[in-house]
TrEMBL record:
InterPro entries: Clp_protease_adapter_ClpF, Hemimethylated_DNA-bd_dom, Hemimethylated_DNA-bd_sf. The keyword Zinc-finger does not apply. SMART domains: YccV-like (SM00992). Residues 121-223 form the Hemimethylated DNA-binding domain. This is F-box only protein 21. It comes from Aptenodytes patagonicus (King penguin). Keywords: Signal. It comes from the Eukaryota. GO terms for molecular function: DNA binding. SUPFAM superfamilies: YccV-like. Residues 1-21 form the signal peptide.
Amino acid sequence: MPHINAAAALQICVLLSALPAQYFISQWYGTDSAQRIQITERLIIASWSSFTKSCLSRDAWADRLKLWLSKTRTCLNVGLLILHFRSWYYGEKKTKIGNSEAETHSYFAESTHVRSPKPEYIHFSVGQVIGHKRFGYSGVIVGWDVKAKAPEEWLQHKYPPAKQGLKDTPHYRILINKANGYGKSTAYVPEEEITIIMGVEVVHHPDMKAYFSGYDGSKYIMQPWLKKIYPHD
């Protein structure tokens, strides 16, 4: 079988394309053979010229390559910009959220570090029902700190100069009994402001089941996760 190079293959394709062109020309320009041959030759020459300019021209291919590189570079730059933005945005967001959570959960007796051993001066325990001496509401203890742990702004507002000493006394986190009609649902108070309520005192609060599994007649029974934090209460 004879070997056909690229140039020969291209010539064959051009010649074959002339056949349907000639048929088309015969339909629109009459049946005169000399006229058809002349028009066909002009058509082939024009087609070949257009083909060489668009497909075989080095400048045409260089322009196509520049355009493709330009689009590729633009897409790449946009993609990198999006990736950098997403990385920055979500990383920044995650850092802020993480820092906020860490700060929030270290305040107001919400830290999950284990309270062991329990100091002797912590007189009350998680699960005990209390009453506030001044405001009169009842509630249940869900956590304590050996001294006040809260944002400095909160401490300054809560304790004016005359009461600064209270910051270094035990503080308790309270779920306030909704039945009292008190405006707040939780409180963080020093030990001297509360007293234990003996006997049956039902505390109504939407978070009770999250902290406690029941009531044993003297205090509420901690959920296992809470008992791990306060093993001696």
